[in-house]
Specification:
Number of domains: 1
Largest sheet: 9 strands, mixed
Order of helices and strands: HEHEEHEHHEEEEEHEEHEHEHEEEEHEHE
CATH topology: Endonuclease, Chain A
GO molecular function, one term: catalytic activity
Shape: globular
CATH architecture: 2-Layer Sandwich
GO biological process, one term: phosphorus metabolic process
CATH class: Alpha Beta
Number of strands: 19
InterPro entries: Diverse_PLD-related, PLD-like_dom, PLipase_D/transphosphatidylase
Pfam families: PLDc_2
Strand order of the largest sheet: 10-11-18-17-16-12-13-14-19
Protein name: PLD phosphodiesterase domain-containing protein
Distance between the termini: 96 Å
Oligomer: single chain
Length: about 400
């Protein structure tokens, strides 16, 4: 064999392998794991920093909002009370994501309250300057506000919750909301949005619809059927097919058989004008009279006289327990309008729930815009019940004593 043939033969042997040894086998690909489908509805929270109120199995609103906005492909419709940002806060990445959505061709619309826009104009104006269509709904003529907090992505993915679009609501305030990947629920919220968007633009809105809403929507979650009913307030500003929230709340309370747990920021038995308003108060009393265990958890902001009056009397009713939840101040110092429990939800008999944007005062249901979700199903109710237990029986609560004098907390 020539000197040239020797290295060539060695090279061929290296490529083909020795005839007495098996050729190396390519490893079989590892079996792929199926990707779990996103749940049709999930509870979302904001735990105040430096507290023990975080639940690892409950996603945080800042992360959920960012994911929803970044995933928008066609439309992003946002209805909020106001927008308030701060350097370094958790809202900044969300505002950037909204701007990026508009830049990549998503039609982005932002609807805020006129009265609170005048208080917090900077971030709204920033978004308007970067491709976001902005309108302000003015309900001052009826002594109301656009208080709803919700978002709809691509007409099918929606969020409703107590979080304002405020850096404090994403880090320094306890909040509860829900993400709902159900087109019928998103469609109902869009009807509310379109009605208010036209009103804010001074445009007529006929409310014509081509099809009826199939609500309550029925979905499967955890092996059970769950029903979801979207609602809105006030009664005289409802789009076609969307029910008024207050009668649904009263119906759920009157239907309670064993337990009724409610957490809200504030509770009042008079309107802001001073007229008696006891619809919810009367319903809670009826529940207690028929043997339902009623527990009410309110923020320390309810230590103000306007709320205390009704709470003191309710606390004297047998079968009703009321506690304040007091969030400690941040180690960084006092933060205005923060370090408070702002969540608004209810759990009935451990099997149905309400998550909304309304405090339990008459004006929120009769003159201001709000939205809510009623969920019939244990999967969501049990998760909210656990959150309630952690608050009601936790280190941050104190029992309301109807005979004690309370000092209102500092707000600003």
């Amino acid at each position: 064999m020539s000197r040239l043939a020797l290295p060539l033969a060695a090279s061929l042997l290296a490529l083909t392998g020795c005839p007495h040894e098996p050729a190396p086998q390519t490893p079989a690909p590892a079996p792929t794991q199926p990707i779990a489908a996103a749940p049709p509805i999930e509870v979302v929270e904001t735990p105040p920093a430096e507290t023990t109120l975080d639940h690892p199995d409950v996603p945080n609103a800042a992360d959920v909002w960012l994911s929803m906005i970044q995933g928008a492909k066609r439309t992003l419709d946002i209805g909020h009370f106001y927008v308030s940002n701060a350097p370094g806060g958790k809202l900044e990445p969300i505002l950037v994501a909204i701007e990026q959505a508009a830049a990549r061709g998503v039609r982005v619309r932002l609807l805020v309250d006129m009265k609170f826009y005048l208080r917090y104009p900077e971030s709204v104006d920033r978004l308007a300057a970067r491709g976001v269509a902005v309108r302000k709904l003015d309900l001052r003529g009826r002594d109301g506000v656009q208080h709803a907090k919700y978002m709809v992505v691509d007409g099918s993915d929606a969020y409703v919750g107590s979080q304002n679009m405020d850096y404090r609501a994403l880090e320094h305030i306890q909040e509860i909301g829900a993400r709902v990947r159900v087109p019928e629920i998103a469609g109902a919220l869009l009807r509310v949005f379109e009605l208010d968007w036209h009103a804010a633009g001074g445009e007529p809105f006929g409310g014509a619809t081509k099809r009826s809403l199939e609500i309550p929507a029925r979905v499967s979650l955890g092996g059970e059927e769950v029903k979801i009913l979207p609602t809105a307030s006030p009664k005289d500003l409802l789009p076609e097919g969307v029910p008024w929230e207050l009668p649904e709340l009263l119906s759920r309370i009157d239907g309670a058989k064993r337990t009724l747990d409610v957490q809200v920021l504030t509770y009042r038995t008079k309107t802001r004008g001073g007229a008696p308003w006891t619809e919810l108060d009367d319903a809670l009393r009826r529940a207690a009279e028929r043997g339902v265990r009623v527990r009410l958890l309110v923020a320390d902001w309810s230590k103000r006289p306007a709320s205390l009056e009704g709470l003191r009397e309710l606390a004297r009713v047998d079968g009703i327990s009321i506690r304040f939840i007091v969030i400690p101040q941040s180690s960084s110092g006092f933060i205005p309008f923060a370090r408070v429990a702002h969540a608004k939800y209810m759990v009935v008999d451990g099997k149905s729930a309400w998550i909304g944007t309304s405090n339990w005062e008459g004006d929120y249901f009769t003159v201001s815009r709000n939205v809510g979700l009623f969920i019939d199903g244990k999967a969501i109710a049990e998760k909210l019940a656990r959150i309630f237990e952690d608050g009601f029986g936790g280190a941050y609560t104190e029992v309301l004593d109807p005979d004690r004098a309370y000092e209102p907390p500092r707000l600003e």
